[in-house]
Amino acid sequence: MSDLLLRARLLRDSRRYPEAIAALHQHLALDPDSFLAHYELAVTRLIEGESYRKALEDVDRAVALSPENPSAHAIRSAILLSLDRDSDALAAADKAIGMDPEFAFAWVCRGKALLAKRQLPESEAAARRALELDADFSDASNLLSTVLRLQKRFGEAEVEIDRHLERDPENAWTFATAGWTALNRSQREKAENLFREALRLDPGMEHARLGLREAYKARSPFYRLFLKWVFFLNRHSEKNRWLIIIGIIVAFRFGRELLSMIHPLAAVPLVVAYLLLTFGSWLASGLGHFLLLKDSLARLSLNRQEKLDGLAVGGLFFGGLLLLVLGLTVLPAGIAFVGGAMIGASIPGSLIFDNPSVKGRIVFGLTTLTILGCGALICLHDFRRAVHEPLMNDATGKMLTVALVALAATTWIGGIPALRRGKVR
């Protein structure tokens, strides 16, 4: 191996990725057909996480230079998985396994691709096969623990975590995996301690930071209910999640009609439960961020976008609730419309600051402003109208309709993946 390749590896191990990539390009300037340089370039870009598309181009060149190399196909699988191309990632992993059936990393790649497709038993089998080949392989152990957790086999997951920690007590990923398992079991304090330990070992681990943030937010009973709902959905594929949501909507409509036939008020508890489920799931995360802002320690687990999200959602919701109550009691009725508009706007507002999609931020930002504008116009009409003039007329009625349509539309278009996911790098 040349000095440049050795230097690139050392730089990568030190997380100095741009310098490692520069060293690899220097090597390629001298030897453009170097399989190892293209392969190392793909691995470095994959770990760096700045451009998976370039990583795929690099590994494709490596595969073209050495098409029978299982390592290149396995890395290609890992890159494709980062690009959300789950089926292609599975095919690449299977190709690597076909070349070398005893290549543990290829089995882990297969298991991760199957996990992304929510084929949990098959993913578990791949993880166990990787551990048969290499019992100390931390990626395989963490994958197995994750799959067991998603199948609600918490006891087996903890046994696997304990087994691996005995072999590698300084593995940050294993502590983070244990933290998520504890959080799934509603063991919030234990989860906080495990995530803190993971961050002590690796302060930059996003997986552990997110876990600690969720553990802090789970101090709220309301948020714990939301987490249970999220964990339930995570056990299903995207297709099944949509079927579950559509099933709930159909069941709600059928149940409401049935209960209304029995008594006009019998459907009220069902309607309230449905509204809490529908709107609570949109607001839970932002309100959780807002509550963390009040805690000087927990606040440190939030990044800038999450803090802005908490301020926007919490400010709109609680500020709107206050104005709504005041408008219905001691202040002019127009104030109540502003309060109601702020509460409604908090729903699309929850999809602005913490949303990685630029299109999504624009769409939901405009929706938020539309609802707030409608509330403000109705309030303005209230202040300007004559004593005998009614608050609601054709113009204000249309404003109210626009606001309600914008709110209802949010609950539908908010599920469009293109408006919730960032641009693939």
Automatic annotation (TrEMBL):
Q: Keywords on this record?
A: Membrane, Repeat, TPR repeat, Transmembrane, Transmembrane helix
Q: Does the keyword Flavoprotein apply?
A: no
Q: Where are the transmembrane segments?
A: 265-287, 308-328, 334-353, 362-380, 400-419
Please give the SUPFAM superfamilies that the UniProt record associates with this protein.
Answer: TPR-like
Q: Name one Pfam family in it.
A: TPR_16
Q: Could you identify this protein by its name?
A: Tetratricopeptide repeat protein
Top-rank taxon of the source lineage equals Bacteria
The residues bearing each TPR repeat, given as ranges, are 172-205
Would the keyword Repeat be found if you checked this record's keyword annotation?
yes
| The species this protein was found in | Luteolibacter flavescens
The record's annotation in InterPro entries points to:
TPR-like_helical_dom_sf, TPR_rpt, Ycf3/AcsC/BcsC/TPR_MFPF
